[in-house]
Design the sequence.
């Protein structure tokens, strides 16, 4: 009944960077030659790696970055709708991170300061191409349900590898020292 | 105070009072704040210079304690106790009434600098609430009428000393007395009895009695005393932990108010047994009103040679007691945080081991005992360990003083031999229709109706004394939410599991209260509680999630009826979060809005 089963077909993974620095994605590339092994285990759906613009049904979604604007919310929702398992990938997704530094100021103050010309005129652009800022930068778990949190700024390549291989082989992911440390 | 030289004079006076000792910083800050009303950065800087310690050190102490203020809080600082029992007695309406009277926002000072009105953690008046503190003086039994009287006195600028004395009456409400509250030994009787037994003899009786600490943890007192006696050190200290901050507990207030002799004689006996020369009573700031009479009591003991040099004629037995005032920090009930506070620092718990018995106050061997524990030592000195051991249960000897509050006809102090059933206490205090009892305060256990046959004892339901009763009109979710806010406020912030955990639990409880909670939050609450329990630095964080876990399991429908039907709801209104940017950009297109996720 519980004979060794054949490995399921490749898992589909989507990744995205919301309000982040792509550092977590860079760190994903830092798994180096294991990328080849990863490629035999998974297939990438929407991701900066594939440049696929919209997500289809996936097994795993990795979300880097906090949620700072309306577009971030839409992308995040798209991943949540399509992914069985959603992972807050790195510090910004978990807490808001560096972009959340602006939370100490009113968004009004931020915008009027940024869009102020030398003559002191304020003209915040009215352009549907530019996503509107939320009042604050939020961690992703305040907007959608999140299944796993992978801490680190960024999580190291080894940490990501450990996390993904745990997930792929059906073990509850556990990140422990020395992979889990922040100094 | 505008005149700089007056400020210098005041600081000089206070510093002289405390021999310019930096380890008396908390006491020094109290006295200076009494003179100035608050402790500005400039005052702090001057003080640091005079004490020859760093500005950061003084400031971190000031900023840690709720009752030290960096800004003017008005001539009258009014704080409403916000324990769940105060809420049940209607404190929120009274709080609002007072805010409306002065046309104030919570925590803001009136424009004329006269008054500020805010909330504070449980002030230990749960049997006679709702209670307030005016400049740290307790006023009990607030009613709409009394609120008006207080408002009128404040508006007229009447000095606190001239307010009707009836306002400040704090009743003992002793409803059931047993061997501690019922006895009336002669002053000094227990000290003489201990001395007659000798140091070894007294320790042997303590061992025989199997007395366990009454502060909650239940450590065997004799082992503590013996370890302190045997530890290497130049000085030994006896500390009485009178920082009774656990919501719903007020037995130490009654013991200090009407049984101070027992407390202090217990300290003398401990000093005699372990060889200490100085005792420190750490009195929580909320009980400041007790200080003058406690000082007078100590003076009386000195006059009777029950304190001082060669106590009761025993050559070389010198011991005295000082009173230290806390400044509004629940965490200081933790013994190592209390010691830090006694040393003039922010009350952050130390790493243990070493334990205080080996390395405590000023890094010397120190016994820290609860107020009630010390009272029990006097009984053992007089009657002996065998007599004591026969009372109560096998692992919980003697009697326990319970602070009963909440939905019952006769709230107050009840003393029982250990082993008493919860249902017995409920019957005695006239609690009908109880659906839940929170035993041992916010950090304790929430018992449901079907557990009322359980017993108060370390073997079954351990308690530091708090016993809060809730009947069927109460919403147990709101009870747990009150505790969640309490712990968020009282976490010292030292370790992440507690600092983050209490804040996350608190915001999740608020999310559920707003109707944005789902099964996801229910699971998260339990997961967080498990993390905090296993990884927090001290007992505060380890127990802060108890009431949440208990109520989630035993009163689940109280949570469930607030949950949204969907899988998940964001923590905030997404579309509203775009409103400011929408307004500034003048946009109103489809992409300028966020609807509900379907």
Sequence:
């Amino acid at each position: 009944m519980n004979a060794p089963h054949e490995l399921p077909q490749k898992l589909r993974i989507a990744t995205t960077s919301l309000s982040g620095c792509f550092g977590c994605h860079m760190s994903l590339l830092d798994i180096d030659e294991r990328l080849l092994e990863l490629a035999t285990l998974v297939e990438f759906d929407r991701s900066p790696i594939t440049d696929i613009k919209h997500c289809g049904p996936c097994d795993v979604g990795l979300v880097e970055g906090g949620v700072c604007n309306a577009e971030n919310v839409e992308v995040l929702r798209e991943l949540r709708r399509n992914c069985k398992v959603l992972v807050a990938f790195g510090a910004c997704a978990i807490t808001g991170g560096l972009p959340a530094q602006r939370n100490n100021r009113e968004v009004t103050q931020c915008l009027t300061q940024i869009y102020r010309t030398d003559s002191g005129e304020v003209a915040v652009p009215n352009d549907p191409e530019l996503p509107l800022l939320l009042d604050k930068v939020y961690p992703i778990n305040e907007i959608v349900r999140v299944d796993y949190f992978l801490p680190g700024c960024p999580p190291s390549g080894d940490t990501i590898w450990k996390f993904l291989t745990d997930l792929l082989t059906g073990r509850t992911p556990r990140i422990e020292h020395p992979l889990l440390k922040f100094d | 105070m505008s005149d700089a030289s007056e400020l210098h004079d005041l600081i000089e006076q206070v510093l002289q009072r405390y021999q310019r000792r930096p380890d008396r910083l908390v006491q020094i800050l109290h006295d200076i704040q009494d003179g100035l009303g608050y402790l500005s950065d400039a005052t702090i800087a001057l003080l640091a210079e005079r004490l020859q310690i760093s500005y950061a050190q003084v400031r971190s102490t000031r900023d840690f304690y709720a009752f030290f203020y960096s800004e003017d809080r008005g001539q009258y600082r009014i704080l409403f106790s916000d324990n769940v029992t105060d809420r049940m007695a209607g404190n929120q309406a009274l709080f609002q009434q007072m805010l409306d009277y002065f046309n104030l926002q919570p925590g803001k000072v009136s424009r004329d600098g006269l008054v500020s009105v805010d909330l504070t953690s449980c002030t230990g008046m749960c049997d006679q609430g709702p209670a307030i503190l005016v400049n740290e003086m307790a006023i009990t039994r607030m009613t709409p009428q009394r609120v008006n009287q207080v408002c009128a006195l404040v508006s007229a600028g009447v000095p606190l000393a001239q307010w009707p004395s009836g306002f400040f009456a704090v009743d003992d409400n002793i409803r059931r007395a047993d061997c501690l509250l019922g006895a009336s030994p002669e002053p000094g009787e227990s000290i003489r009895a201990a001395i007659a037994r000798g140091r070894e003899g007294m320790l042997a009786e303590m061992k025989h009695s199997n007395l366990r600490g009454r502060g909650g943890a239940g450590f065997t007192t004799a082992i503590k005393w013996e370890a302190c006696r045997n530890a290497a050190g130049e000085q030994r200290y006896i500390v009485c932990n009178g920082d009774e901050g656990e919501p719903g507990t007020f037995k130490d207030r009654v013991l200090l108010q009407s049984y101070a002799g027992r407390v202090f004689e217990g300290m003398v006996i401990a000093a005699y047994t372990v060889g200490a020369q100085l005792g420190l009573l750490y009195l929580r700031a909320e009980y400041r009103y007790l200080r003058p009479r406690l000082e007078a009591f100590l003076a009386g003991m000195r006059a009777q040679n029950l304190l001082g040099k060669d106590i009761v004629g025993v050559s070389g037995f010198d011991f005295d007691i000082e009173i230290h005032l806390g400044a509004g920090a629940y965490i200081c009930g933790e013994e190592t945080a209390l010691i830090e506070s006694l040393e003039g620092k922010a009350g952050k718990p130390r790493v243990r081991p070493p334990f205080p018995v080996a390395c405590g106050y000023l890094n010397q061997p120190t016994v820290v005992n609860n107020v009630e524990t010390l009272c029990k030592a006097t009984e053992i000195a007089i009657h002996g360990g065998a007599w004591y051991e026969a009372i109560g249960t096998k692992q919980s000897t003697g009697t326990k003083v319970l602070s009963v509050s909440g939905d019952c006809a006769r709230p107050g102090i009840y003393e029982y031999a250990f082993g008493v059933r919860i249902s017995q206490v409920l019957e005695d205090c006239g609690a009908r229709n109880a659906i839940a009892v929170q035993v041992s305060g916010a950090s304790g256990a929430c018992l449901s109706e079907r557990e009322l046959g359980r017993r108060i004892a370390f073997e079954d339901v351990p308690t530091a004394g708090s016993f809060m009763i809730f009947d069927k009109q109460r919403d147990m979710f709101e009870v747990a939410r009150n505790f969640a806010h309490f712990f968020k406020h009282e976490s010292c912030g030292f370790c992440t599991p507690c600092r983050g955990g209490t804040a996350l639990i608190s915001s999740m409880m608020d999310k559920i209260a707003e109707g944005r909670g789902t099964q996801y939050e229910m699971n998260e609450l339990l997961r967080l509680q498990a993390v905090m329990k296993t990884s927090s630095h001290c007992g505060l964080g380890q127990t802060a999630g108890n009431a949440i876990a208990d109520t989630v399991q035993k009163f689940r429908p109280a949570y469930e009826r607030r949950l949204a039907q969907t899988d998940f709801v964001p923590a905030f209104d997404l579309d509203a979060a775009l409103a400011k940017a929408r307004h500034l950009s003048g946009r109103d297109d489809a992409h300028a809005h966020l609807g509900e996720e379907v």
Remarks:
- The two ends of chain B are 62 Å apart (CA to CA).
